[in-house]
Amino acid sequence: MASLMKAIVDPKKNWLAALHMKSISNRLRKYGLRYDDLYDPYYDLDIKEALNRLPREIVDARNQRLKRAMDLSMKHEYLPQDLQALQTPFRSYLHEMLALVSA
Fold first, then answer.
1. 11 or 100, greater pLDDT
2. Model's pTM, two decimal places?
3. How many Å apart are CA 55 and CA 22, to the nearest integer?
4. In the chain, what is the greatest distance between 2 CA atoms, to the nearest angstrom?
5. What are the DSSP calls for 52-91, one per residue?
6. What's the chain's Rg over C-alpha atoms?
7. C-beta pairs of 74-78 under 8 Å, 24+ apart in sequence
């Protein structure tokens, strides 16, 4: 049963999961966000602790991305295409520290 669930959500094995991942990637690129930026530290205390343990530069970069995304959203604009091409929405910075905190 677990292998079936992994196959369903794996973008390499399921075309629908790949389509969903591409859609999420396009939306995050428009605002210059990463997937880990969407986690709310007020909702989960493990995420708050993981953010407290990360280096200050990484947290500052996260806050800057969130501020830029809010500013673009309020103006009903997107990042320019050349900056969208540089974005890496699925490069994780939080998962390793979150795994340490959860353990």
1. 100
2. 0.84
3. 30
4. 46
5. HHS-HHHHHHHHHHHHHHHHHHHTT----HHHHHH--TT-
6. 16
7. 78/30, 78/31
Considering only CA atoms, which of 83, 76, 97, 75 is closest in space to residue 33?
83
Q: Please tell me the least confidently modeled range out of 20-24, 60-64, 65-69.
A: 20-24
Question: Using N-to-C axis directions, what is the helix angle for 56-74 and 15-31, rounded to 10°?
Answer: 90
Residue 88, both tokens: 């890496």
Residue 97 near residue 58, CB atoms below 8 Å: no
Q: How many CB atoms lie within 10 A of CB 101?
A: 18
Give dist(CA 96, CA 31) in Å, integer. Answer: 24
AA letter at 96: E
